Structure formats: structure tokens, C-alpha cells
Amino acid sequence: MLPFFSAALTANRAIARRIEGGLSSTQRHKSTVGAGGDVSSGIDLEAEALFVEHLGRFGTIESEESGRIGTGEHTILLDPIDGSSNLLTGFPYYGTSAALIDPTGTPIAACICNLATGEIFFKERGETPLHGTLSDETFHRFTPTPDPEIGIFERAYTHPDAVDALGKMGLKFRAPGAVALSLVYALRARYFLYVGEYRAYDFAAGLLFCEDMPRVQTEEVVVIARDRDVLDEIVSGLEIRSGAS
Questions:
Q1: 231: exposed, middle or buried (C-beta count within 10 Å: 0-12, 13-18, 19+)?
Q2: pLDDT one-digit tens code per residue, 16-71
Q3: Alpha helices, DSSP H only, in 140-224?
């Protein structure tokens, strides 16, 4: 396992211990607006500090909470808690996301963890994703679900016209509310859709996991599908006109 992955695993284990048994009032308390534009809670900042402790030696950290931390040739794009609102609500779909970016701006490694289930995923550029749990010491190739029935449409509530279009196409979806996790689970789902402006913190790690899947990406739309025909149907139905890959 890459040293970056080992350090990310240690950090995620430490964060999981911090939230065992529920959140304290300090962890729930929201303070200042973070670098990503959302208000940071105590648990966001605790998780960030643990990642800085364990990942800081790999490069400059660009965190959704505090912005730039430390120095180094490489950059770590970090979302310390992916799906913070879910965690604060007690909805079991939240985790963490970290992507290692080389000096050319290319993502070369990523780790995403579902803290609610204990699942953790690792991806090195050009390699098959690995999957395990926080209690594991060995990890295995990630196996996609055969013939998935649903897709994932993050922030669907902000785009009712797109929801209506998907309904007319007969494409079922869920909108669970944690983008990095949903990008990992795109490997299990029929498709992934995001409409609206998006931030590198949310997408860098997850997009690396999906590097081999058909994709259309513009400044305000990301569509990923296992089946090129499904991708083309969504692109046509939503009238997306550029950024195919």
C-alpha cells in the first residue's frame, strides 16, 4: 500500500473514533465560514486537524475548511467531512475525501471513506480501485454491482427540470447528499449526475475513481455512466452540449 494510503487510513480511523457514540455539542457547533463557502462545524475542524497531522508530510493541503495549510510540491485536496449535514442530522451517509495532486495538477492517488459504514476506498491513477473497511488490514479489488437499477443525482432538489427529464426517461435515482461518496458509488450505480457549479474539494478524489468510465463534464454539469448508451440518453435529454470524454 502506498504511504499516502496508509496515512489516510490512519487518519480516517482516528476520525471514526471521534464520532463513535454520537457528536458532542462542541463538535456540532458551527463557527466560521470555511474556504469552500460553507460554515464549518467543530467536527469538520477536528477531522481537518487529524488529516493535517497524518497527511501534511505529503504536500500542501488545500482544505474545504481552512484553505491552504503547509507547504510542498504536491497538493492534497481535502474535504475533511463529506456530507457534513448528513452527519449532523444523523443520516448515515457521510465520510471523508482526499486526493493527492502532483506538481502538474494531475490527481495521482485518492482515498474516500464512508464513515457511516466503515467502508474505505483507495485509488492510484491507472490502477484498479481497492476496497475494504476501517477494521481491515488487507484490501481487495473493488467489484462493481452487476446490472444496477438506480443512478445518483446529487443536489437534485435544485434542478426540478432535470428531475422531470430523468423521470420521462425512466431513469431512477437517489440523492444521498455526499458528492465524493456518490462518485465512488457511481462504480456500483447506473449513472452519476451533478448539475450546478462544483468545487475541486468535492470532486477531485471521486473523479479519479471514475477515470475509466464514460463521462461528459462541463463547467456546470458532470455525467458519468457505466453504459455509453445511458450516458448519451442523459446528455441528449438534458441538452448538454460539450465536454464529452
A1: buried
A2: 999 998 999 999 988 776 666 677 899 999 999 999 999 999 999 999 888 899 99
A3: 160-169, 179-185, 200-209
Q: Domains of the chain, with CATH numbers?
A: 3-141 (3.30.540.10), 151-238 (3.40.190.80)
Q: What 3-state class would DSSP assign to 110?
A: strand
β-strands 191-195, 151-154 pairing: parallel
- At residue 156, the 3 state secondary structure works out as helix
Rounded to whole angstroms, the Cα distance separating 109 from 239 reads 33
Cα(196)–Cα(220) distance, integer angstroms: 5
Of 100, 93, 120, 99, which is closest to residue 14 (Cα–Cα)?
120
Closest alpha carbon to 123 in 134, 110, 136: 110
Report pTM.
0.93
User: Amino acid letter at 12?
Assistant: N
Other beta carbons less than 10 A from residue 108's beta carbon: 17
Dist CA 85 CA 157 (whole Å): 15
How is 38-94 classified by DSSP, letter by letter?
SEEEHHHHHHHHHHHHHHGGGSEEEETTTEEES--SSEEEEEEEETHHHHHHT-S--
- Find where cell 481552512 sits: 66
At 155-170, the pLDDT tens digits run: 999 999 999 999 999 9
The C-alpha angle 11, 39, 192, rounded to 5 degrees, equals 70
